[in-house]
Amino acid sequence: MERKLHPLTLIEQPIADTPLREWLESSEKVVVISHMNADGDAVGSLLSWYHMLGGRPGVILPNGCPPAFSWMPGADRIVSGDAERERCERMLTEADLIVGVDFNALSRIDFLAPALRESKARKVLLDHHHNPEIEAFDLVVSLSHLSSACEVVYWTMNHLWGDEAIPRDTARCLYTGICTDTGSFSYSSEQPSVYEAAANLVAKDINAAGIHNQINDIYTENRLRFYGYVLTNRLRVFPESHFAYIYVTLDDQKQFGITAADMEGLVSYAMILKETHVGALVREEPTRNRISLRSKYDVDVNEIARTYFNGGGHIKASGGQSTTSLQETIELLEKLFLKKGK
Ligand SMILES: [Mn+2]
Question: Distance from the CA of 149 to the center of ligand 1, in angstroms?
Answer without folding.
Answer: 5
